[in-house]
Amino acid sequence: MEAMTAQPTSLKVMTVNTHKGFTALNRRFILPELREAVRTVGADVVFLQEVLGTHSRHSRKIDNWPEAPHYEFLADTMWPQFAYGRNAVYPKGHHGNAVLSKFPIVHYRNHDVSVLGPEKRGLLHCVLRLPARPVDVHVICTHLGLAENHRQQQLELLCHIVRDEVPADAPLIVAGDFNDWRGKAHAILEQGAALHEVFVRAHGSAARTFPARFPVLPLDRIYVRNAAVHAPVVLPRRPWSHLSDHAPLVAEIEL
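The line above is the sequence of Endonuclease/exonuclease/phosphatase family protein; the predicted structure tokens follow.
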């Protein structure tokens, strides 16, 4: 009898706010250092927020500015698949969310969930196809607003997207910067989309991730549905505390 093709049974996922490739307060450009640090984690799927697509002034003034968009530069040779959702557009460039994947991204769509005002936000929904698995894996990269009433509306929109676009039996991972320092998202996402936060499930509370040097606020999250979780971790302060204003999160997701 022929040996069956081995199926991936888990995904290692990571979420990090790249702060547009600069240290806190924009004092130094550190995207090459950030890329090396992200590579050492060895994640299968990386959720990025505040990643630059282009910036004409920085590209002229900063010596080691990459020619490729930042999400392509970060993907390099380790993540052959990537998707970008442009959220904020300004005269010199644009930035948004991105997903890097070791597995094929067969479809993606960026949802504009901006509420009235200057703050532009999006939800990047990608569909991943893993070898020999009958059901695709859905992932949504999030970056929600600073105002609580905006986040409330954006969380409701996220629940609608999940109900409309994600099959009921499909594994789903939602990760990113929720700016939800009061912890209101847990109940909304559990009731509206059957999503559970991995650190809350494992440790009883969300991980503190902001500011990265001395984390106090639990702003970043990883939620799952139709998937178990093994060993969610906050990465050590070094080198991450000077690579972003947010501490990254990592979790092994059992499919």
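Note on the example: The first strand starts at residue 10 and ends at 17. DSSP finds seven helices and twelve strands in the chain.
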